[in-house]
């Protein structure tokens, strides 16, 4: 699997020939200033919730690529009104088989309002299981006991967790989350984009190392094999 980070909480994962883009936020994202969104590849776009720093470019990229957007029903309805035709509404429950992977929507403790002020439905995280590997993207969330359910469903190769605090978990809580989900390889997101979520990355990395865990913090615009 190849993980490409675009800054904040926007990234893509390649599973075989499929490109899955998560929470597309390029316009207004200071970490993605050099990214031409017309070059972004996506077969599927997964959206965790409706805040602008997660849906800013969803409409443009969905139309450019013809990707299927997977999100809460309320977000799907908002996208449909803007001319996005290929969508799949999802909510908490059993996994949905999309062929390239099974996707399970799981709980995230956050809020979800769309850019036009309308309700964005339940904030979600996603668990993807595939022949290439399995991973969890928590979305914007605080630490929640629900994370302890994940090991009942699958063994994770890695997990993508927010570490910036204020709106989400910080690094210390992300370590507890990694214990809950039984995964020691963590990619940190949702940090250092804005003043309210600035962190000491060296200290965060040391917190993980001291616990025998790996915190990966790829630079925006870079890809890693994982």
Automatic annotation (TrEMBL):
Signal peptide: none
Keywords associated with the record: Hydrolase
Pfam families found in the cross-reference section: Lactamase_B_3 (PF13483)
SMART domains, A to Z: Lactamase_B
Keyword Hydrolase attributed: yes
SUPFAM superfamilies named in the record: Metallo-hydrolase/oxidoreductase
GO MF, any single term: hydrolase activity
Taxonomy, superkingdom: Bacteria
Domain Metallo-beta-lactamase, first and last residues per copy: 7-190
InterPro entries: Metallo-B-lactamas, RibonucZ/Hydroxyglut_hydro, UPF0173, UPF0173_UPF0282_UlaG_hydrolase
Family, per entry: Belongs to the UPF0173 family.
The name this protein goes by in its record: UPF0173 metal-dependent hydrolase D6B99_11525
UniProt source species: Arachidicoccus soli
Taxonomic lineage of the native organism: Bacteria, Pseudomonadati, Bacteroidota, Chitinophagia, Chitinophagales
């Amino acid at each position: 699997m190849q993980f490409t980070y675009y800054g904040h909480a926007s990234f893509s994962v390649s599973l075989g020939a499929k490109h899955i883009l998560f929470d597309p936020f390029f316009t207004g994202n200071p970490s993605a200033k050099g990214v031409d969104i017309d070059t972004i590849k996506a077969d599927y776009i997964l959206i965790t919730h409706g805040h602008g720093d997660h849906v800013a470019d969803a409409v443009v990229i969905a139309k450019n690529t013809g990707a299927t957007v997977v999100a809460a029903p309320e977000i799907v309805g908002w996208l449909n009104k803007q001319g996005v035709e290929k969508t799949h509404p999802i909510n908490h429950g059993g996994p949905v088989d999309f062929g390239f992977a099974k996707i399970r929507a799981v709980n995230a403790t956050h809020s979800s309002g769309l850019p036009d002020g309308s309700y964005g439905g339940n904030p979600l995280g996603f668990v993807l299981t595939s022949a290439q590997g399995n991973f969890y993207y928590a979305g914007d969330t605080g630490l929640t006991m629900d994370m302890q359910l994940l090991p009942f469903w699958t063994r994770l190769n890695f997990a993508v967790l927010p570490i910036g605090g204020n709106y989400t978990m910080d690094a210390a809580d992300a370590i507890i989350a990694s214990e809950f989900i039984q995964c020691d390889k963590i990619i940190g997101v949702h940090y250092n984009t804005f003043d309210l979520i600035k962190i000491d990355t060296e200290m965060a990395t040391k917190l993980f190392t001291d616990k025998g865990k790996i915190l990966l913090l790829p630079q925006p615009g870079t890809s890693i094999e994982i």
